[in-house]
Amino acid sequence: QLQLRLFSFTLSETDVGANPVQVEIGEFDEAIEVVEDVVAENPCLNYHCKKGKVCEVDESNTPMCVCQDPSTCPEVEGDFEHICGTDNKTYESSCHFFATKCTLEGTKKGHKLHLDYIGSCKFIEPCVDSELKEFPLRMRDWLKNVLVTLYERDEDNNLLTEKQKLRVKKIYENEKRLQAGDHSLDLLAHDFEKNYNMYIFPVHWQFGQLDQHPVDGYLTHTELAPLRAPLIPMEHCTTRFFEQCDADGDKYIALEEWATCFGIKDQDVDKDLII
Ligand SMILES: [Ca+2]
Ligand SMILES: [Ca+2]
């Protein structure tokens, strides 16, 4: 009996006084209107959500960011997009990682969960003190070489700004510059002492590249991720190095802390060099 009543209700709804032609025209008009509405008024179109969230509209058509369901992340084949979290769990991709982190928002666990490095979780050798001292030597030299390479390849001014180019030009044209290569730690240390000035700008430049969300003179764990995440699987002192960079332990790396980490003297730390 219940089934019967439902059936008759449906029938009366669709059949109310309509002749077939009217129904067709009506539906056609409506379809066009709906499409236009979606294009013009989809509040999610230009609504930006941070990683791990997607835009949805509520009942009043107001856009809001909600946690993405990890199962809606694009399927990844193979393990090349794997992410190791600080919980030592392997995530299929950064999408899966950030979606999971979002669902833990507000919890202690979520607060502590960060993207640790690119790749599946693996055993990373502990970094001993002597190795930790070597790390900034190689990192500084690498930063300098990255900048010089960008300078050499920058034909269309896309890689460096004019101001940055002026700075790098001085390094590039300096005859005393240690050329890129596999140098001994002694040579790197010696060069840092002798050509100290060449290292000041690259250290500032890298800080500026990372300090973007927001630009405030402090690096969060997330801002640091583009540099440290690919580095950790290759350089086992990365984590310890950046941890001790945060000298006051407030979880942010200030420009002063950053510069000190790379051996830049206090008097040479200059936020105006972040150009
Ligand atoms: Ca920042
Ligand atoms: Ca700090």
TrEMBL record:
Sequence similarity: Belongs to the SPARC family.
Keywords, ordered alphabetically: Basement membrane, Calcium, Copper, Disulfide bond, Extracellular matrix, Glycoprotein, Metal-binding, Secreted, Signal
SUPFAM superfamilies with a match to the protein in the record: EF-hand (SSF47473), EGF/Laminin (SSF57196), Kazal-type serine protease inhibitors (SSF100895)
Classification via SMART domains: FOLN, KAZAL
Lineage: superkingdom: Eukaryota
The Kazal-like domain, residue ranges: 66-123
Listed CDD domains: EFh_SPARC_SPARC, FSL_SPARC
Entry's Gene Ontology molecular function annotations: calcium ion binding; collagen binding; extracellular matrix binding
Function: Appears to regulate cell growth through interactions with the extracellular matrix and cytokines. Binds calcium and copper, several types of collagen, albumin, thrombospondin, PDGF and cell membranes. There are two calcium binding sites; an acidic domain that binds 5 to 8 Ca(2+) with a low affinity and an EF-hand loop that binds a Ca(2+) ion with a high affinity.
InterPro entries, sorted: EF-hand-dom_pair, EF_Hand_1_Ca_BS, Fol_N, Follistatin/Osteonectin_EGF, Kazal_dom, Kazal_dom_sf, Osteonectin_CS, SPARC/Testican_Ca-bd-dom
Organism in which the protein naturally occurs: Amphilophus citrinellus (Midas cichlid)
Disulfide bridges in this chain: 44-55, 49-65, 67-102, 73-95, 84-121, 127-237, 245-261
A Pfam cross-reference name: SPARC_Ca_bdg
GO cellular component, one term: basement membrane
Protein name stated in the entry: SPARC
Subcellular location: Secreted, Extracellular space, Extracellular matrix, Basement membrane
Keyword Disulfide bond: yes
